Every structure is written in C-alpha cells, then in structure tokens.
C-alpha cells in the first residue's frame, strides 16, 4: 500500500523544486552562442559582472528568478540585485517591507549554481546626487527611511505635491513613497551604505531626465562624496548609453569604471543575444571567485567594460586583457620569399579592429585588419628580410583607455 504521507511529500517536494525557486533549467547548447567569454589575464581571473538590475520588487517586470536564469545563460559570474529603494511602483501588488526580498529570492534561485549574487540597492534621488547604486550591502532596510506625515498640514502638503507630479500612469501611493523617500537626505543613505562596507557608484550620470545636456558633470555633493571616500565608481556605460564625460570623470577622480545593463524588461528583448548581441558588462579582474576578492578588485579599479563591440578601461587593465585575447599562433616563411604567413588568434568575444602601425605591409590585406571573435585571421607579411622575431604594432580601434584614446598592442612571435 502507498503511504499517503510519503506520496504527499514526494509530490510536494517535486512541485517545490520545479516551481519558481529554481533557475538554470536549460541545456548547454542554448547558452553556447550567448555566453560572454573573455580569457583570464596573466595575473588575474576574469569575471563577467552585471552590477545593476531590476525586478518586480521595484520597477522591473520580471521575478528575480528570471534575472538569475538570464545571467546563467549569458555566462554572467556576478549578478547584483539593485532595486530602487524609494521608487516601488508595484508595491500595491507586491508589498514588501523588507527591501532585501529581491536579493533573497535571487539567492534561492542561484543556490547550487555557479554564480555569485550580490545584495545591492539603488538609492534613488533627484539630482544631486541622482541615482547611486550600493552593492555588497548587508541590509537594504537601513538605506532608506519613509515617514508618513502625522499632522493634517503635512498630509495636505503631501497631497498637493502628489497632485503636482507629472508622472503618467503611476499611482498616488507610489508617488507619495517617492516624495517621502527623497526627504531623507541622500547623504544619510550613502553614509549608511558605506557603514556596511558597500561599494558605491553613480548611475547613468548623463541621464537626460537629470542632465538636460546629456553630459555627466560633478556637482559639489558628488565632489564631497568622493573626498570622503564614499563614492567609488561611476557608470561610463548604462544600457545602450556611453558617456565620454563620465569616462573622463572616472579618470580624473580615480573612480572605478563601470558598465551595466540596468535591465528592467528581458535581456533578450533589450540586447538580443540570439542575434549576436550582449548586455553591457563589467569585466572584473580578481584573485579568486569570491565576494571579497570581487569587492577588492572593484575598489582597486580592476575593471574593463564590454559595451557593444568596444572595450573601455584603464590602460593597466585593458592591455593585459588584449594580450590574453590575441596572439600570433604560427609564423612561417613562404619558401624562397620574404613573405611571412601568420595566423592571429582571438580567444575573446570581442571582434577586434586593428590598425597596422608597423613598417610592414601585407599581401592579402590593407592596414585595417579584423580578427573575428573566438576566431582567427591569416595575414601574409612582407618583411623585406628574413626575421627571427616578428613584432607587429597595432592600434586597437575598438579598445578605449581614455576618451578618444585607443589602445596600442604589439604582437610578437619567434620565427623558426
Ligand atoms: Zn537609475
Ligand atoms: Zn536602475
């Protein structure tokens, strides 16, 4: 006879395992083409990170499980969950006093999966300081404070402010929360996040809603935050946007260069990985794949952004990545000639656009050479005399180490 309790438990656990708590139910084949792959450098392990994402727990449109699932498919090693603390348009349907809920859900979905989920929050203010992400926080609930008015005058004032807000399609309760959330000084939230040992970066500093000229520029409040050591990074890339001014601010103020998806809908809709696209990510160069090592790397500014087909970062980070990605595989002279046949191999997802800066010319290409992602390119070099060591100088047109400054790379190969 079947034990009814055993039967119940079997069904119950089976349902539990395959319901919304799990992620990663896809085949390796499905991830083959969309997985973001960059090699480790000589010194560090290269991790793929997306440090800015939303779910239904703020203004995103998917459950955190889907964020984890997408990240696993994209080969993302580090995923931060960063809901708006003060802007919660789904709060009527998904009320949650505990602002760590999104992180907790993502963490469950990622259990036993090869991905690190980071607890974060988006501190959401008008400019200044605008939106600031705090990642590696311990408790999101300590980073915001919403106090509803007690006396009638304050209640009336709030009503008036709500009625004056030009936010189409947003309910009054959400507007009230946002107004009251903004009344708690941003400095308090930023200090609280720093007390938790968080890593903080300024989000989309060029956002046209908060910067009408579309340019990022530091306000005295940002300068103060930097001076106190409270602001550690800046988004040079957010979604489909790249900010040259933010890049310059990062270099001038020793801020970590960050690129994120800031995804609210589906990665597949926004970035079309099935058509060869990818979300913008931050490559982080770490000693080991642990939260501590990642945080240390971020504070040490060991990052490169992978945005569309461009790599963006400090020279000290970009160069080792280029050296790890590109190499001359073989070099052989054609018999009785000074024509050297070489194969340049690329083991990264970037499609490199190289401009030949060496004195040599090629028999089968002009000076602009493309090396396909995860592929190779054959070139025949006119070396004039037989060399024992080939050195080819390139300008890497799709790698930026400062605004308008592309990276230089020398590929070397011994010739037998
Ligand atoms: Zn934002
Ligand atoms: Zn955001």
Q: What's this, in brief?
A:
This protein has two domains: 26-145 and 184-308, Metal-dependent hydrolases (TIM Barrel), CATH 3.20.20.140; 325-414, Immunoglobulin-like (Sandwich).
CATH architecture of the largest domain: Alpha-Beta Barrel
Overall number of structural domains: 2
Rg value: 25 Å
Class from helix and strand fractions: alpha+beta
CATH superfamily of the largest domain: Metal-dependent hydrolases
In oligomeric terms, what are we looking at? single chain
| pLDDT < 50 runs, ≥5 residues | 11-20
Strand count: 19
Q: Average pLDDT, to the nearest integer? A: 94
CATH level 1 class label of the largest domain: Alpha Beta
Distance between the termini: 78 Å
How many helices in DSSP terms?
A: 12
Mass-distribution shape = elongated
Which percent band covers the strand fraction? 25-35%
Fill in the CATH topology of the largest domain.
TIM Barrel
Could you describe the largest sheet, including whether it forms a barrel?
A: 15 strands, mixed
Helix content: 25-40%
Small molecules held by this entry? zinc ion
Question: Describe it for me?
Answer:
Helix 3 (64-73) packs across helix 4 (101-109) and helix 5 packs across helix 6. This protein has a 15-stranded mixed beta sheet that branches. Strand 10 and strand 11 (310-313) form a beta hairpin. It has 12 helices and 19 strands. The relative contact order is 0.11. It has 2 domains: 26-145 and 184-308, Metal-dependent hydrolases (TIM Barrel, Alpha-Beta Barrel), CATH 3.20.20; 325-414, Immunoglobulin-like (Sandwich). It has helices at residues 4-18, 28-32, 64-73, 101-109, 152-164, 172-183, 186-195, 220-227, 244-253, 267-271, 291-299, 315-325; strands at 45-50, 78-84, 116-124, 131-135, 199-202, 233-238, 241-242, 256-260, 281-286, 303-307, 310-313, 326-333, 339-346, 352-356, 361-362, 368-371, 376-382, 389-402, 405-414. Bound molecules: zinc ion (2 copies). One zinc ion (ZN) binds next to loops.
């Amino acid at each position: 006879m079947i034990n009814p309790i055993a039967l119940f438990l079997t069904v119950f656990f089976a349902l539990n395992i395959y319901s919304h708590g799990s992620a990663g139910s896809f085949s390796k084949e499905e991830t083959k083409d969309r997985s973001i792959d960059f090699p480790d450098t000589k010194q560090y392990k290269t991790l793929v990170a997306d440090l800015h994402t939303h779910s239904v727990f703020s203004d995103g449109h998917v459950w955190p499980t889907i964020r984890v699932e997408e990240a696993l498919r994209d080969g993302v090693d580090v995923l931060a969950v960063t809901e708006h603390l003060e802007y919660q348009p789904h709060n009527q349907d998904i009320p949650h006093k505990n602002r760590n809920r999104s992180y907790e859900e993502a963490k469950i979905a990622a259990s036993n999966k090869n991905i690190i989920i980071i607890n974060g929050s988006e501190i959401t203010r008008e400019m200044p300081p605008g939106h600031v992400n705090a990642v590696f926080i311990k408790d999101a609930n300590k980073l915001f404070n919403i106090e509803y008015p007690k006396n009638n005058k304050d209640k009336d004032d709030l009503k008036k402010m709500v009625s004056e807000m030009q936010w189409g399609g947003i309910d009054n309760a959400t507007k009230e929360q946002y107004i009251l959330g903004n009344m708690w000084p941003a400095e308090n939230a930023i200090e609280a996040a720093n007390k938790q040992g968080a890593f903080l970066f300024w989000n989309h500093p060029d956002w046209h809603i908060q910067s009408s000229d579309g340019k990022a520029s530091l306000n005295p409040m940002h300068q103060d935050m930097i001076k106190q050591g409270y602001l550690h990074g800046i988004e040079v890339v957010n979604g489909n946007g790249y900010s040259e001014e933010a890049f310059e601010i990062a270099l001038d103020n020793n801020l970590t260069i960050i690129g994120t998806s800031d995804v609210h809908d589906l990665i597949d809709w926004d970035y079309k990985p099935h058509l060869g696209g990818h979300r913008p990510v931050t490559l982080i160069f770490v000693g080991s794949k642990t939260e501590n090592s990642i945080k240390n790397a971020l504070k040490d500014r060991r990052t490169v952004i992978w945005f569309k087909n461009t790599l963006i970062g400090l020279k000290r980070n970009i160069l080792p990545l280029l050296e790890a990605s590109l190499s001359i595989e073989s070099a052989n002279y054609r018999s009785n000639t000074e024509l050297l046949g070489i194969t340049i191999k690329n083991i990264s997802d970037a499609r490199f656009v190289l401009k030949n800066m060496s004195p040599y010319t090629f028999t089968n290409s002009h000076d602009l050479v493309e090396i396909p992602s995860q592929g190779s390119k054959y070139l025949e070099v006119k070396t004039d005399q037989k060399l024992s060591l080939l050195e080819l100088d390139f300008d890497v047109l799709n790698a930026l180490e400062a605004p308008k400054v592309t990276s230089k790379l020398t590929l070397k190969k011994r010739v037998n």
